[in-house]
Specification:
The chain is built from 4 helices and 4 strands, in the order H-E-H-E-E-H-E-H. By secondary structure, it is of the alpha+beta class. It has one domain: 2-Layer Sandwich (Alpha-Beta Plaits). Strands 1, 2, 3 and 4 form a 4-stranded mixed beta sheet that branches. Helix 1 packs antiparallel against helix 3. The termini are far apart.
């Protein structure tokens, strides 16, 4: 077994933020960070703010994300993939996984011109999704 090398290394908050941003945006279905509106996007381009991404780098190491996800994908699965990606990236780069990763889906994004279609009504005589709930039957 090798002896540990004395000393320590430091990672800046900006470096950790860049790791988290890259890990998050690399997940299929994530189309960006939510929050901040037009002002937030302007401040982000100027490097003054980072809407949708908040870090606590003291103990505990915590990551809070607010994301925009592509419409039509399973949101829970996208969120699980984001969490796994962020935990892996920080664990690999820093040797420490975050204590908490909080993910909030702020918006769903669909392509321009392809609006989400409303659910079609079932044909006459076919069961509807609300029929059982409206029947008054107790289903365990």
């Amino acid at each position: 077994m090798t002896d540990p090398i004395p000393g320590r290394s430091l990672a800046t908050k900006r470096a950790i933020r860049d790791l988290v941003r890259t890990a998050t945006l690399s997940v299929y279905g994530v189309s960006g960070f939510a929050g901040g509106g037009a002002l937030g996007r302007l401040l982000e381009r100027l490097g003054l703010a980072h809407p949708g991404l908040h870090l606590e780098i003291r103990d505990p190491l915590a990551v809070d994300l607010s994301l925009t996800v592509a419409y039509g994908l399973p949101i829970a699965e996208v969120a699980r993939q984001v969490e796994a990606s962020v935990r892996y990236a920080l664990g690999h780069a820093l040797g420490r996984e975050p204590d908490r990763v909080t993910i909030r889906i702020g918006h769903l994004r669909h392509e321009h011109g392809i609006a989400p279609q409303p659910a079609e009504a079932p044909a006459h005589g076919e069961p509807r999704t609300t029929d059982l709930a409206n029947s008054g039957s107790d289903v365990a």
